[in-house]
Design a protein that fits this description.
The protein has about 450 residues and is an alpha/beta fold. Helices cover about 50% and strands about 10% of the residues. It folds into two domains: about 5-155, YbaK/aminoacyl-tRNA synthetase-associated domain (YbaK protein); about 160-190 and about 270-460, Hypothetical protein af1432 (Orthogonal Bundle).
């Protein structure tokens, strides 16, 4: 059935006249319909404050402006946690919040720009099926709702790396007061690449390096060594017997390449102070890093050897995929709360677009710029910078696409505070990756969630 039963009942109650329309696969979840198409797509978000929850209807390609909404309504809204919405969506067999007014009998706020369209396509609670209604019918069902100017366009962010450094420094100057600018300019210089990481990179370039060389480097840092051992000893890898040393972890469980990249990722994570982040933020960061690395690991192993990219670089790219999250918190501490708040209210918008809107720069840009300055491998630099750009076709694009697929498939399977987003079928083709095999791989990873969560808990110890 194209329309979920619960939505059908609501439409019947409101006596809405509609037809079924299907969203073209070429139209992304963030792009408005092209001018030659006949309707404006309406999407629905939920907000809440002390008075309760409200539903917000706005055009696709836009996001909620919380500050403008507060000025017009006098209410201080926050987004509803995605985890709180998932049980409700499962109960009603939907994958997104329906754009049918007064869903769940909630008060509804409507962006006034919707009233200027001849036809409207209302999200029916799925990814593709839409309810097409006329402007007249739409007005009849929203006549008692509050109208407001509450939507702003989702900003586009440049994928051209040539001006990244200029944009980063311009953002710092634009968003910092003069009295703290010097400190943040110093922050942008950031510490040099950690000594442990420098040694690991040198080891990577040494064709004669062996297991003992790697073990000796890791064991210089006791906390790093403990984390590598605990990773190998995790039930996730089901290693026989007790893992007693880094040497054991390399030889018996993880292998040289994986330990090298795991240690490098951990060493970089310890570079930043994380003073702006709460323990919950840090836990969320490492959980995302661990799951994405595991997902990339699984996807790479399911690709035929003829087309398989370098495992170590793919794994490290997955582990560092969200390093920009830490970096922006370090560079822009006064604005981090605003980024979090706006992102929570707009779960349909990638974090990078929120960052671009508020700061003029994204975490992907900042982290890629830093990795490049640290002389990290080009594969990782490109993966971090282009992970949200599925059209990227330059050198090392495979690593960016792997992280893109891993992150979105985890999201679509219910992991993390995000809503499902479609993945273009051609990306699977470009990676020589079977979509069904990839789906099963992600399911298997999530089934090991207890073991992966235990690993993530130890990552910031």
């Amino acid at each position: 059935m194209p329309v979920p039963v619960s939505i059908q009942e609501l439409l019947d109650t409101q006596k809405v006249s509609y037809s079924i329309a299907h969203l073209d696969d070429r139209v992304s979840g963030l792009s408005p319909l092209q001018s030659q198409q006949r309707a404006c797509i309406v999407q629905s978000m939920l907000l809440q404050d002390a008075q309760g929850r409200v539903q917000v209807l706005l055009p696709m390609g836009t996001m909620i402006d919380l500050d403008a909404l507060e000025q017009q309504t006098g209410r201080h809204f926050e987004g509803v946690n995605v985890d709180d919405l998932k049980p409700l969506m499962i109960q009603h067999e939907i994958t997104s919040i329906p754009a049918v007014p007064r869903w769940q009998n909630m008060p509804t706020l409507v962006d006034e720009s919707l009233l200027s369209n001849k036809y409207l396509w209302l999200n029916a609670g799925g990814n593709r099926d839409m309810l097409e209604i006329s402007q007249e019918d739409f007005r009849s069902i929203v006549h008692s709702t509050e109208m407001a100017k509450l939507a702003i366009p989702v900003p586009s962010f440049s994928m051209d790396t040539e001006n990244d450094e200029i944009q980063i420094f311009d953002s710092v100057k634009r968003f910092t007061q003069k009295r703290i600018r010097q400190r943040l300019d110093e922050t942008l210089e950031l510490p040099p690449l950690p000594e442990t990481a420098q040694r690991i990179i040198k080891l990577r370039a040494d064709p004669n390096a062996d297991i003992s060389d790697l073990a000796n480097i890791v064991e210089i840092d006791p906390s790093l060594a403990a984390q590598v051992v605990s990773w190998a000893a995790s039930p996730y890898y089901s290693a026989p017997g007790k893992i007693k040393s880094v040497h054991d972890a390399i030889v018996r469980v993880l292998g040289f390449d994986m330990v090298l990249n795991l240690a490098l990722g951990l060493a970089l994570g310890k570079t930043l102070s994380m003073r702006t982040l709460s323990p919950a933020h840090i836990t969320r960061y490492w959980r995302s890093a661990v799951y994405t690395a595991a997902a990339v690991e699984g996807l790479v192993t399911s690709i035929d050897r003829v087309h398989r990219p370098g495992f170590g670089m793919a794994y490290l790219s997955g582990l560092l995929n969200n390093f920009g999250y830490l970096l922006l918190a370090e560079i822009f501490p006064p604005y981090w709360t605003n980024i979090e708040r706006l992102s929570k209210a707009n779960p349909h918008v990638p974090m990078a677009a929120i960052e671009q809107h508020l700061l003029g720069v994204t975490g992907n840009q900042a982290s890629s710029w830093l990795m490049d300055n640290w002389n990290m491998p080009d594969e990782v630099v490109v993966a971090l910078r282009q992970q949200h750009n599925p059209q990227y076709a330059g050198e090392n694009a495979v690593y960016a696409k792997l992280v893109h697929v891993a992150h979105n498939m985890l999201c679509n399977a219910g992991f993390g505070a995000c809503i499902s987003r479609p993945i273009a079928p051609q990306i699977f083709e470009e990676l020589h990756l079977d979509a069904e095999t990839a789906r099963i791989t992600i399911e298997n990873i999530l089934e090991s969630g207890i073991e992966l969560d235990a690993i993530a808990d130890k990552m910031h110890g």
